[in-house]
């Protein structure tokens, strides 16, 4: 177990690594992909995973292992960095890995606005200053019916909220993603009303499972996974975990979130994983785990993505079919 005792991540604690995917491993994957195509049994997932993974980045040192982590087997770096949803770079699962390579993530600033005692523009290093990091292994599930188990590195969102001192009027937190048309080709397609916006109720944000992630597998986040800072809310669908955050706004009213604005009948504000509430165009009762054998059976979807024991109390008395 690595114990995080220093919290500032000074430059002396970051080891710059230039470790790229082993060429032989890539060639083996390409050969397997070609063979599978010839056999007629390869799906789109396998085609995507045959491409080169993200290069490894700077190491984050002295990280605490979180007791809140799942014990499930984690997905590989290859799988996590080549099969992504990040619509600012395109709607295909391989698009972020291809087009996010040039995203400039330093320096990075986050605007703090709204019902808060300390509105300001914070640099990422100021957000991380005095912040302990920990590895949390969470199951990440997308609404399309696939899941991964990912070893995020981050810190509790509630720690930052406390530092910012929201007022008594703050009932929700609204998050906004970078929208840079020069760097993000997906913005040229009106899939959503850009920039991407998501939100949490204040008690959700203060739950210890919700984190701001800055790393993956003890390394800084790859661009396609939401660098340099993103939200991770493991009991909700993946679209709730907003990436490349540039603004955090405290509000009295429920935020108008990107997917809810685009298709209110399909994507609710809460986005809690509920296998009993189907998406209008597909069932959500089962899921397919990325990395499982191609022909393996789908497995039942768990309420709140398996975190019901921890978070169900947040929604006591709510009609979860109406507030989906």
Q: Kindly, what is the distance between the CA atoms of the first and last residues, rounded to a whole number of angstroms? A: 38 Å
Strand content: 15-25%
Q: How do the SSEs run, as a string of H and E?
A: EHHEEHHEEHEEHEEHEEEEHEEH
Rg, alpha carbons: 19 Å
| The CATH fourth-level homologous superfamily | Oxidoreductase, molybdopterin-binding domain
What number of structural domains do the residues give?
Answer: 1
Sequence-ordered SSE layout with sheet pairings:
Elements: E1 14-15, H1 23-39, H2 44-49, E2 59-60, E3 64-65, H3 77-82, H4 95-99, E4 109-114, E5 120-123, H5 124-128, E6 134-141, E7 146-156, H6 157-164, E8 172-177, E9 197-201, H7 202-205, E10 211-216, E11 219-220, E12 230-232, E13 245-251, H8 258-262, E14 286-289, E15 299-300, H9 308-311
What is the compact description of this entry?
The chain is α+β, with helices and mostly antiparallel strands and about 325 residues long. The chain contains 9 helices and 15 strands. The protein has one domain (about 10-315): Oxidoreductase, molybdopterin-binding domain (Sulfite Oxidase, Chain A, domain 2).
Structural description of this entry:
By secondary structure, the protein is of the alpha+beta class. It has one domain (11-315): Sulfite Oxidase, Chain A, domain 2 (Alpha-Beta Complex), CATH 3.90.420.10. It is 19% helix and 22% strand. The chain is built from nine helices and 15 strands. Strands 3, 6, 7, 10, 11, 12, 14 and 15 form an eight-stranded mixed beta sheet that branches. It has a five-stranded mixed beta sheet with strand order 5-4-13-8-9. Strands 1-2 form a two-stranded antiparallel sheet. Strand 4 (109-114) and strand 5 (120-123) form a beta hairpin. The longest helix has 17 residues, at 23-39. The radius of gyration is 19 Å and the shape is globular. Mean pLDDT is 87; it is low at 1-43.
């Amino acid at each position: 177990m690595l114990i995080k005792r220093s919290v500032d991540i000074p430059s002396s604690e970051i080891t710059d690594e230039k470790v790229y995917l082993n060429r032989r491993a890539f060639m083996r994957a390409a050969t397997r992909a070609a063979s599978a195509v010839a056999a007629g049994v390869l799906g789109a997932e396998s085609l995507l995973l045959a491409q080169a993974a993200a290069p490894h980045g700077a190491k984050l040192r002295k990280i605490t292992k979180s007791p809140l982590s799942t014990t499930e087997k984690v997905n590989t770096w290859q799988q996590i960095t080549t099969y992504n949803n990040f619509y600012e770079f395109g709607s295909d699962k391989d698009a972020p890995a291809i087009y996010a390579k040039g995203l400039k993530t330093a320096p990075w600033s986050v605007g703090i606005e709204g019902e808060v005692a300390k509105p300001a523009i914070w640099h990422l290093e100021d957000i991380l200053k005095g912040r302990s990091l920990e590895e949390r292994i969470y199951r990440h599930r997308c609404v399309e019916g696939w899941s991964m188990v990912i070893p995020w590195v981050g810190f509790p969102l509630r720690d930052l909220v406390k530092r910012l001192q929201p007022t008594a009027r703050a009932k929700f937190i609204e998050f906004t993603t970078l929208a840079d048309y020069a760097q993000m080709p997906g913005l040229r397609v009106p899939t959503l009303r850009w920039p991407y916006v998501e939100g949490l109720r204040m008690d959700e944000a203060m739950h210890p499972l919700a984190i701001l992630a800055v790393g993956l597998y003890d390394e800084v986040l790859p661009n396609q996974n939401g660098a340099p800072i993103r939200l991770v809310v493991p009991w909700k669908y993946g679209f709730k975990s907003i990436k490349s955050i540039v603004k955090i706004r405290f509000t009295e009213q429920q935020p108008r979130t990107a997917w809810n604005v685009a298709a209110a009948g399909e994507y609710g504000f809460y986005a809690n994983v509920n296998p009993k509430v189907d998406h209008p165009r597909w069932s959500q009762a089962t899921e397919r785990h990325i990395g499982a054998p191609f022909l393996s059976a789908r497995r039942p979807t768990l309420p709140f993505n398996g975190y019901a024991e921890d978070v169900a109390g947040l929604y006591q008395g709510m009609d979860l079919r109406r507030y989906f």
